[in-house]
Amino acid sequence: MSTQAPSNNGLHQQNITPSQVQALKRLELHYDIPYQAIICIPCGFALKTDNDRVGRHLKKKHGISKNRRQKLNALINSLHLPDLDELPKRPDRSVQHPFLALQTGAECKHCNLRSTSYDILSRHLKKVHTREINGIDVRGKRWLRDHIRDNLNFQSWKANDIQRSWIAVITDDQQSLQKGPDRPLQAVPDVIKEFAQKLVSEERGRLDKQQCSPNFHGTLGKKELLTNWMRRTRWDETFSQARRDILVTLSEVPLTTGQPFWIGVHDGEQICSPVEDECKLALIVQALDRLFDRCADTVMHTDVSVRRWLRGRFSDRPYKAPFELVMRSASESQYRKEFKRCLCFWLRVLQLPKYMVPSIIGRGLSEPQHEMLEQLWSDPIWKDQPPTGLFSVEDDEEGRVEEEDSEDEDESDYEDSGDTKDGEEKSYAWPGQESGCSYEESTTGDQSSTLLTHQDTRADDPCTDVVLELCYSMAIEDFEDGTASSSLLVYFSAVRGLSRPTGDEYLRPHQFTPVLSRLIYCTPLIFLETTLPRFPHLYAAIPARPSYGHLRRLMPIRTEKMCDGTMSPLGEFLSLLSYGRALSRSEGPVYHFHWSEDDQVLSWDGCSHLSMTSFRGLAREALRQATTQCQQLMFDWEPADPDLSSFRDRLSTAKSGYSFVTDPANGLDDAYLDLFMRACTSSIDGMLKSRVQGQSLWDTEAAQAYLDAHDASLKTIMVLCYLDSGQAARISELLTIEYCNTASRLRGIGIYGTSLFSITRHQKARLTTNNEFQVARFFSPPVARLLFRYLVYIRPVAYTILRKCFLGLG
Q: How far is CA 717 from the centre of its chain?
């Protein structure tokens, strides 16, 4: 960059005093000594100095009075300044002159013609440099912009004298302002501007229309652009002529709100499902629930060997672990909901006008499919059923969020590796058995109670029989022309692969495999109930299973319709599940986490973040709340802090009821009596109150308040156990920790050396791998102190109050 002053080129040199420079500055004039030019600072260009032009400019343009302009003309004449046309240009790439205005423009690359108008440069290039633009040897130079130097900043002595200008280099800050998003566009004729605005308005309207009513009739394009997942599922072919938004709506469970179920608008015709049909669907769904209750009862009374073959995916060998029912009632409901959706979907399709079905689902119903659906829908048994109001909008919305936003906690048993989630989360309920119970016993009891709340499984239920016939027909349906999507179950699974609520996207493998897991879980239940039912289905003429030969009866249908590689819906589901999980592992995580430069903030998903200060504050707040709650439950009694090294804990002892609290050598089994005495005799919040006759009795309100406070304290302690002792355990593992040995399980809390620790014996793939890992987590001293006081004092007192005050009243 050149900043040198011009050499002595014959121009008259004249010195100027500092007082004269200040006089010019007061009039907002600058005297450029190297180039001998008078510059008007507000205007940004040099002024001609002959015939009092400087004074006239100040009066006309800036309103400066004659008094202020006195002696200005004499000063200007004394300088003997040259004419502006004789002033030399500053070199190109000179530093920006601080008092000259900037002009933004461009220049021709071929002849250096400069202009602030791109229109002038365009006409110049087309007229003078046609050969350069269209030259054969100049490849890729057909754009006019490639023949100009754009975004240049010019300065000149005279106003708007672009031809005698030079290129000025400005600072980085000024350059960012010049190239910012608010840089004004070149002025264009009104005709062009109006036409451009019209085009923009039309395009904006098209975008708005596309958002409100997406176009579902297109395909995904060329085959080479399809992902491996889409090549495998072939959903693009399945839905190429279908209305995906209507398909998603058809798969909703019935909502008996007393109003027609709105499906959508197709070819200008409104489609609704009448109230009567929705009520009938609700009855069918209720019958499906009762059917799955019977299936569960059959599974619970079926031998392990049969259930191993039922779970196996290969025809020549059983699985290493038997088929198991999911343990959580919420997961069971979610699994069943897939078949509920399937029945509602196809029965609603059955009620559509026949001419409309191909244009909505992209294909028609075959004759056998129409017959099996019509057999269920037209069965006279539904006429004798009372109306029902089983479902509510809130329940459906809750299930929708759970299904779409996260994978199931209870994955299917059909896994290829250990990367699976178990389904044995136990909901903690206060109070349980005093001495604790085994996890397997508690979950089995929950299932039995669930079954007993429904109609007796021995009783004849024609409605469930009719539903069973349809479900079994769908499970054994053959593929038409070898196409899996021709079957009802596989096509419905493809519908579940559409995003909700409009179906404008396809689910990725990690989003779709939970749907497959639910279908894979429910389908073997249908096979087992049809082949080896515990009790007969009289209406469907299905006898109860014989006393012997169960495998001989199961194996033929299993080999043909239930194994991987068979041309059946279950075979397709198993194959697609295996492929989808393999793709999920290769695609990487759903969320990508990254740390800030100071390693203090963790961010993910582009909009979520967690600071380490906030995370540490969570643990501190949990510890503070647990400490406060413990003090309240201890009635502000502060026993001496325990020396854990002085207590004995025989970790190898498996005797039922044993823990370090009950070990006679520790003397802790009756330590809670001191706290119990304080709780009974406390003048504030005491458990006992006196009568007028001089007698005493329980204060049930105070006792219930103590139990409620115990419940809240236990939840906070669980949070502390989750946050403390290193890598957190799964919630399902924390909820299975026993405080003492039971008949079938060792306790999960113990003392080792000088530390209190927990042991969890669950692993999320336990049902699949048949392996169980033991993980020990040692608690920090503050958390260990709280746990010790809870186990030794608070918990026994709470159970004593429960036993004496409430159970004694019964």
A: 29
Residue 56 makes CB contacts below 8 A (sequence gap 6+) with none
Give, in degrees to the nearest 5, the angle at Cα 650 between 627 and 788.
5
At position 41, the amino acid (one-letter code) is I
Per-residue pLDDT tens digits for 663-720: 999 999 889 998 999 888 888 888 888 876 767 888 888 889 999 999 999 999 999 8
Pairing status of strand 696-698 against strand 688-690: antiparallel
Residues 293, 519 contacting (CB under 8 angstroms): no
Q: Which residues contact 72 (CB under 8 A, 6 or more apart)?
A: 23, 27, 54, 55, 58
The residue ranking higher by pLDDT, 14 or 526, is 526
DSSP state string for 455-509: S-TTS--HHHHHHHHHHHHHHTPPPBTTBGGGSHHHHHHHHTTBPTTT--SBPPH
Number of alpha carbons in the 13 Å side-chain half-sphere of residue 400: 14
Ramachandran angles phi, psi of 443, nearest 5°: -70, -35
Cα 619 to Cα 158: distance, rounded to the nearest angstrom: 72
Q: Please enumerate in sequence order all residues whose Cβ is within 8 A of that of 312, keeping only pairs 6 or more positions apart, or say none.
A: 318, 319, 563
Give the burial class of 548: count Cβ atoms within 10 A of its Cβ; 0-12 exposed, 13-18 middle, 19 or more buried: exposed
Residue with tokens 């260009």: 45
Domain map (residue ranges) of the chain:
18-86, 94-178, 237-414+442-587, 618-807
Let me know: does 539 contact 382? Beta carbons within 8 Å.
no
- The DSSP annotation for 651-682 comes to TT---TT--TTT-TTTT-TTTHHHHHHHHHH-
pLDDT, tens digit, for every residue of 548-569? Answer: 999 999 999 999 999 999 999 9
d(CA 488, CA 479): 10
Q: Is residue 87 within 8 Å of 37, Cβ to Cβ?
A: yes
More confident residue, 464 or 199: 464
Q: Report CA 643 to chain centroid distance, whole Å.
A: 47
